[in-house]
Amino acid sequence: xxxxxxxxxxxxxxxxxxxxxxxxxxxxxxxxxxxxxxxxxxxxxxxxxxxxxxxxxxxxxxxxxxxxxxxxxxxxxxxxxxxxxxxxxxxxxxxxxxxxxxxxxxxxxxxx
Amino acid sequence: xxxxxxxxxxxxxxxxxxxxxxxxxxxxxxxxxxxxxxxxxxxxxxxxxxxxxxxxxxxxxxxxxxxxxxxxxxxxxxxxxxxxxxxxxxxxxxxxxxxxxxxxxxxxxxxxxxxxxxxxxxxxxxxxxxxxxxxxxxxxxxxxxxxxxxxxxxxxxxxxxxxxxxxxxxxxxxxxxxxxxxxxxxxxxxxxxxxxxxxxxxxxxxxxxxxxxxxxxxxxxxxxxxxxxx
Lengths: 112, 230
What we know:
The complex is a heterodimer of chains A (about 110) and B (about 230).
Chain A: E1 2-5, H1 10-23, E2 28-31, H2 37-44, E3 48-52, E4 67-71, E5 79-83, E6 86-90, H3 95-110
Chain B: E1 4-9, H1 13-25, E2 29-35, H2 39-48, E3 52-56, H3 61-74, E4 79-84, H4 89-97, E5 102-105, H5 110-122, E6 130-132, H6 135-139, H7 151-161, H8 166-173, H9 177-191, H10 196-205, H11 211-215
Parallel strand pairs in B: 1-2, 1-3, 3-4, 4-5, 5-6
Helix pairs in contact in B: 2-3, 7-9, 7-10, 8-9
């Protein structure tokens, strides 16, 4: 299970990625600045991308990732979550919710 | 060594919980309380009397002053680390005067924040302020007219940048309209511009005032955005 975190600013990005590694040591978690997201998606092929809506990332990047969480800095800290094409919304997203999504994505990978 | 006892105050739940998890996992830091910034954070500080408070500040200095003063009263010995997206020196100076112990820009790494927390907790009598911010912002110290503008003039510029008229600025700052005009005239002369729009443009370009100062408060000068100004 590969997760790429491109949230801005850097401190948020690192804290979220380190927390993911702490809670789910079996998952491979990488960070990248939004400007390097496209290249990192190509090289790392993450199953899940965690980013924010004001990061200036090329929207085309999302089409190359099966699942993503988009934190809406422009609208409180709610988030849009896309898992295998189904989009849901989450209010003030928490670590518990982040882990729930990551586990769901990982479980989907194991299904035949 | 006894772990540093820390209260974490940030509105962004996922970040706050993530940071708490990272800090706690190390063993030399104990997160004794966490929650949104503002009055809730003051209550946490009063209850736990932590060694260090890590506090998000994304609002107008006057609002920050209220919160910081309340924290100081609640726990005078706690060291206060401000986490912010503001990267202009005017803001650093203002918060330093409010008695903070560290100013950490959110472009800093988690490691830099952790080093700051440990440094402050191990040196409770220290009087230096730790500053971690983008190199470019620091390199601008003394380069421009920022140092020539008074705090009041910078305050006027922020309000003008928000689109307030002279009358509204006067009401906001509890001064006369004539005084506002005098401040503006002084600003024009000091920075060599001829209009309020040029003054604002120059101040923003030179980062004497920050974009966040303009957008993070309503026209009353009070934050109504829940501190969300990323």
